[in-house]
Amino acid sequence: MKSIKHIVAVFVLLVSSVTFAQVKFEAKVSKTKLGINERLRVDFEMNKDGDNFNPPSFSNFNVVGGPNQSVSKSWVNGVSQFSKTYSYFLAPKSQGTFTLSQATIEIGGEVYKTTPTKITVTSAVSKPRDGNNADYVASENIHLVAEVSKGSPYLNEAITVVYKLYVSPNTGVSNWREIDNPKYSDFWSQNIDIKGLQVKNGTYKGEDYRYVELRKTVLYPQKTGKLKIEPLSLDITVDVPTNRRDIFGGRLMTQVHKTVSAGERTINVKPLPETGRPDDFTGAVGEYDFKVTTSKTELKASESLNLNVEVSGNGNLKLFELPKVNLPSSLEVYEPEHSESVRTNLSGMQGRVSDSYTVVPQFKGKYPIPSITFSYFDLKTESYKRISSDEIVVDVTQGPNNTVAETHPSATSDGKQPVVLNKDHFAFIKTKTDLEPAKKSYFFKSKLFWASLLIPFLMIPLALVFRKQKAVRDADVTGNRIRKADKLAKKYLGEAKKALGQKEAFYVALEKALHNYLKAKLNIETGDLSKDRIQALLNDKGVDSSVISEFTSILESCELARYTPSTKVTMQQDYDKAASTISLIDKQIR
């Protein structure tokens, strides 16, 4: 009777151990039917740790979160329990019935697969106002808002868009990532750098909220009419309080993924008025100062001066052209060098832009630089304004006379002087110099001459010494053999040395090097490279049996090491052993 009880107990124990050892790998979904505006959570759970996990393709869904990995270990009645889960959060792309295909994982050398799951996606559903529902709580307490400074600006007037994320006091945000970035195709845009996000207190629809400013952008509309600002969308991990409490009475939190969008905004851009628009208006909008300056007003012909045309202030500084200068033809003018010193903040562009001209007079005389006018649209008065520079007179005190201008005064009646070159055009070039004759030098009897004569005689003793040392080295048969063997080992093991640290590549290169060495030394083909054949050939060539055993053991190590763990230290040891063995064989072989 006792023996029967023992047999039953052993049987129960065996059944229990087999049950506990059974591998489970399955896919669990949060729901099999959902609206297109809802999220689907898929968990791939296993009770044994595995490798090479491959999820399904999720071709009919967008992965908005995951994979998130969680591992738990516990002891129940003295039995260890293990659980590992890969979680994904999916958003459906369209309505219909779809199949989540199999996921695979390798556990204990076996490949396990999940069962395919059918998912039905319907039209958008209205979510219940359930205070205990985490998705509903997240949607009611997280808001992304795009605040636009002005909804009806003028063409080329700066506006700002500030994206704020509002979070209620009882809700937390763990992380977020941008899904859709707005494209400002009809605007000149620049993002303002935000150094460190700061949590601030504010109100949203009359209720207290905390918020952070995620992005600030300055826009200059480049077209008139209704322009759209695309929405910014975020995928947010939200911490939502639940009805469960911990052992100290505090409410436990749960995490849900939520997509929030700032919504599309429409800006009505007004055209600049046609009434009063100056002919020289090039699109400047803002508040500006204008000035024209020269580096000097008195100079000689062939000297140069800089003429600087500068606009400074607040507005679309990078989006209009500076007025061009119109100078007398006797002043040679080069293409201007454009420079900008502009910074952009929430008020728009501020700074200055300028064109710097290099001017070179050709003749003696006084030349007026006429007044230059700059026009812009003033946003404060909503009218056009013009600023004119003062006339500047350039006095050229020295240089050739413009004879044409003197004999034909009518040539300057339009404010321009024709350029007529005469034989004195290059009179300003210096023709008298203070050059001194160079000292004559001869190669004969110079230091270089004597050195060239003596160096060949001095090289003769050095050549004799070198030749004697070479003869001694050639007579050293043993030493030459050692040097040749070491050089040969380095030659064949060069590729293996480059692959140190990469197990597979290193041992393939090492084995190839050993085979190539034997083929070169023993004059055999790859098909003859068996272990017994190698030992016999090396033994016939007079190689010690210990060296032969070392060589064959290295070959065996190359084959085994591909399938066993190896460190860089082990690889270095195998490399050194192979180098020394090749060197020994080359010294002993006959």
UniProtKB/TrEMBL annotation:
Keywords in alphabetical order: Membrane, Signal, Transmembrane, Transmembrane helix
Transmembrane spans: 448-466
Record flagged with keyword Transmembrane: yes
Secretion signal span: 1-21
Name of the protein this chain belongs to: BatD family protein
Organism placement in taxonomy: Bacteria, Pseudomonadati, Bacteroidota, Flavobacteriia, Flavobacteriales
